[in-house]
Amino acid sequence: xxxxxxxxxxxxxxxxxxxxxxxxxxxxxxxxxxxxxxxxxxxxxxxxxxxxxxxxxxxxxxxxxxxxxxxxxxxxxxxxxxxxxxxxxxxxxxxxxxxxxxxxxxxxxxxxxxxxxxxxxxxxxxxxxxxxxxxxxxxxxxxxxxxxxxxxxxxxxxxxxxxxxxxxxxxxxxxxxxxxxxxxxxxxxxxxxxxxxxxxxxxxxxxxxxxxxxxxxxxxxxxxxxxxxxxxxxxxxxxxxxxxxxxxxxxxxxxxxx
Length: 258
Prior knowledge:
Layout (H helix, E strand, L loop, with lengths): L2 H4 L2 E5 L2 E9 L2 H10 L6 E8 L17 E8 L10 H15 L5 E4 L3 E4 L2 E13 L2 E10 L15 H5 L5 H19 L5 H10 L7 E6 L2 E10 L5 E5 L2 E5 L3 E4 L7
Parallel strand pairs: 2-3
Antiparallel strand pairs: 1-2, 3-4, 4-8, 5-6, 6-7, 7-8, 9-10, 9-13, 10-11, 11-12
């Protein structure tokens, strides 16, 4: 890898520091390295390409040039026990950023995806670490801006197709950084999660429709009832409501995505 590829461009944007690399192994892995090196946070790490991008449960995340691969590093943003709620903060912000660029009909799929007409547009990954007395978290966001894979087990789409013009990395980051700051302020270190939850539910894919939730204990099907006050999925099965903290979710039926 050349020095040019490993040396980031540094600038400020919407009150954040930004470091943009030509190539990285993983923006979230770079965020982890920065956290343990004592970085104070409020840093966006962005790569034009990733060689080892990852999604939930260690899955590969394809990271070709032209798409958005970024992680926001925050230090002590909230109590550790409410840190998973930052995924909802990021989801609402990413959806608003896409809308700012002209995308319509983008919905939020529990727990961490953005979708449009049943096709995946973006994914979000949270990772956190205790660093001495501090708690650091990286919110990794991958968005198909210019292209999307066509050989996955599920449909995908990209932002340029939704808005009818090219979507540039910097213009998306400008909107994302600004929107994320707004949603972080509303989140108020966890005290304002009720507001974030309401905003998330207003754009939820498949609310009230059937879904399949697959956990380590197996797959269960029911109706997507909503979120509890902590952000856990509520699944109605017959006359009972089950609370699910972590699962892979498939939305079922012709109205599930609306």
